[in-house]
Structure prediction request, 478 residues.
Amino acid sequence: MQISPDGNLLDDLRSVLGDRVRDGDFELGLYGKDGSVLEGRPSLVCLPVNTDEVRQIVKICREHDRPFLARGSGTGLAGGAVPVGDPVIIATAKMNQILEVDLENRIAWVEPGVLNLDLTKELTPQGFHFAPDPSSQQVCSIGGNVANNSGGPHCLAYGVTSAHVAAIEVVLPDGSVTLLGDLAAEPPGYDLRGLFVGSEGTMGVATKVAVRLTPNPPAVRTLLLDFPDVRDGAATVSAIIAAGLIPAALEMMDKRAIEIVEAFVNAGYPTEADAVLLVELDGLPGGVEHGVEVVRSVAERHQVGNIRVAADNEERELLWKGRKNAFGAVARIKPDYYLHDTVVPRGKLVEVLEKVYKIADAYDLIAVNVFHAGDGNLHPILAYDSDEKGVLERVHAAGRAIVTASIEAGGVLSGEHGIGLEKRDYMGMLFSAHDMATQDLVREAFDPEGFANPLKVLPSGSRCSDSFGQHVPDGAWV
Ligand SMILES: Cc1cc2nc3c(=O)[nH]c(=O)nc-3n(C[C@H](O)[C@H](O)[C@H](O)COP(=O)(O)OP(=O)(O)OC[C@H]3O[C@@H](n4cnc5c(N)ncnc54)[C@H](O)[C@@H]3O)c2cc1C
Prediction:
C-alpha cells in the first residue's frame, strides 16, 4: 500500500469500505481518464456497493474538505468523469443490480452501475426495453446516461434519457439521501428530477433510478438509402420529417465513413455513394409499411440511388452493426480520433458539414461524419495519430472552429455528450454572464460549497472554484 498524503481520509474511507478504497498508482491512473482525450488524477477511488456506503463516503469527504466525483463506466466524451481538484472518485461499477421490474406499471428500479444494454437484454424477453440506446450501450452505465441525459439512434422518436426516468434516489452533496420525482404521471411541485437529469454529477450521486420501460414494437423495418450527393441525403432527412413521419432512427454517414465501415463489417454498404441514410421505422405493421412508402417517395424526389430494405432481422442487425461500429472502424485510417458533438438546425446540416470538411483540411486532419441526422446532431470525427508532434493542438483548434461554425448556424454546444470539462470554457459562446450566473445559483442550491464534481460545466464555477481551484493540476487539459 502507498503512503497517502492524507492518511486520515484514506483511513476513514477504509473503515467503511475496507479494500474497496483504491490508492494504487495503476488504478489512480486508470480512473484519471474517460472516453475523451482529457486527463487528471483522483486522490482515491472508492467502490461502494449500496446507497449507505455512498452517503458515508460523501460525509467523510466533507469532513476532510475534499470534493467527490461520481463515475459510471468512464465512456463520457466531454471529460465529465475526469478528476480535477483532487476528488475522491465514487465509482458505481459494483452497484450493478436490477432491483425490481414492475411490468404492470412499466417501471424498473435499477442501481446506477447497471449497463445500458444489460438492462435491455434483461427486459427484451419480457416484451420491453430501455429506449435510450447510445452507441456505447454495451459498456455505459444507467447512472452515466442519467447524468449526461444521453441520447442514441432511437431517441429521435422515443426521446432522450430524461423522457425515460421517472424518479432518482440521490445522495446530495450534504450527505443526505432524497428521492427526486416519483412514479405518478404528473408529480406535483418543481421537476427536480428533470433538473438532476443532465447535471453531469454536479448535484449529487444517483444511487437508484426508476426507469420507464418501453414495449418492443410489433413491427420494424430498416432501410439503407444511398445518395450520389451528400446534399440530397441531408435534404431527404428534413423532407422525411416535413412529410409528417418521425422514424425511430434516422442516421447519416458520409463517404469516408461508408468506406471504413464497409471494410470493417462487410455489411454491403455502397462504397461508391457520397452518403447513406439508415432509416428505421417501427410500430404497428400497417403504419410501418405506410412509412416505408413515404420514405421511398420522399427519397425518390431527392435523387436517391438504391433503396435497400432489410429482409429479415439478420440483415437489419448487419446494417446496424455497421453504424454502431463506425467509431471503432476509424482505426483503419488513423490510430486515434476525437469525436465531436454539436447540434445544428436540420436545414443547416449541409452548410455546417461543408465547413467541417474545410476546417479539417485547414488543420491537416481527416474528418469522418457519422451522425444522428434526424435531430440535427452532428458527430464529426477528427482522425489523427497521437505520435505526430503537436497534433493534439491542431485537433483542439479544429474542434473549437467546428463548435463556432455550429453555433453561428444557430446550433448549440452539445447534443448528447454534455459539457463536462471539454466545453466548459465554450459556455460563454452561447450564454451571457447573467445566464451562467443564474445556472450557478441553481447548482449552488444543491451544492453550496461545491463538493460535487467541481470545476465542470460552468466556467465561473462560483464557489466550486473558490474552494477547490487551487487543486487544479497544471496542463490537465489543453
Ligand atoms: C464509442 C462511444 C459512443 C458513444 N455514443 C454515444 C451516443 O450515441 N449517445 C450519447 O449520448 N453518448 C454517447 N457516448 C458518450 C457516453 O457513452 C455517454 O455519455 C454515457 O451516458 C456515459 O456513461 P458512463 O457510465 O460511461 O459515464 P461516465 O463517463 O463515467 O460519467 C459521465 C458523467 O456522468 C456523471 N455520473 C456518472 N455516474 C453518475 C451517478 N451515479 N450519479 C451522478 N453522476 C454520475 C459523471 O460524474 C460524469 O460527469 C459514446 C461514447 C463512446 C466512447
User: Anything to note?
Assistant: The CA atoms of residues 33 and 94 lie 19 Å apart. The mean pLDDT is 92. The domain at 219-326 is CATH 3.30.70.2190 (Alpha-Beta Plaits).
